[in-house]
Amino acid sequence: MSGLPSAVCLMGPTASGKSALAMALCRHYPFEIVSVDSAQVYRDMDIGSAKPSAAEQAQVPHHLIDICDPAESYSAAQFRRDAERVMAEISARGRIPLLVGGTMLYFKVLREGLAPMPAADPELRRQIEVDAAARGWPALHAELAVLDPEAAARIHPNHSQRIQRALEVCRLTGARFSELHREGEVPALSHRLLQLAIAPVERVVLHERIAIRFRQMLADGFMAEVERLYARGDLHPDLPSIRAVGYRQAWAVLSGESPLDELEGKGVAATRQLAKRQFTWLRSWPELRWLQTDDRQRLIASAQGDRAGDDPLDAARKYLDSVL
User: What element of type H or E holds 35?
Assistant: First the structure.
């Protein structure tokens, strides 16, 4: 693998400071940023996805942002193909891809390719059967049409067994059933991945950041952004775009399912759950170098005139200088 061009992955839970660190790194290295975010791929979803500002995108080239309409479904397999293409183009320009985001499934598929077709999951199958009993198989076929239009087109709306299996695979893997069938063996990645992760040492610090950021999103007009999406009339909560954290909770307010005064609490709680899932992925991630931050200890050390270890930028630069 030593002859392969390098690409740097910057991972971490939501609100951990990935974007700010990425922009800082771009001042020291010939990076172009590749977004690894399942919400930032969608147009008109800017505030709730913490999309880089127009000024930031003008400073540093960004890729895989605003490439889909919210009515479309974007899969992990599509991400791998798009990322491979963009990474090759960046390397051909003599620059280095910097992949930044928190959609861990995308990082996994990029690193390992698509997993083979998963074994049956009895509990998930039972849940699908319960759902079908309540809503009918045609309704679940309509759900499949959103997640995997190609598979739905090949399956009759009343063919319960095939609908169940296709939905099961989509939910288990996050990839389309049709693509797993079609892909077969995925070629090895064309780049050597250098993998970094950033997160506060203290979980309470991350929780505070999540709450502050969600309040700032609301102040910046997040509800107006979701209202514009809602007013289109062609979007619904089963779409991957609207299921994104924050958007799902705001959509429930607009549809009358949840009161407005509970939006902040529910949005913060859902974002914390997302961060917890991201940590679960990262705890077992292979070949990962952590850039941990400890804001409280750093403030104390600064007040005392001491240095509380390298900050994330210093630590990242020391590592990258040794491997790039």
Answer: strand 31-35
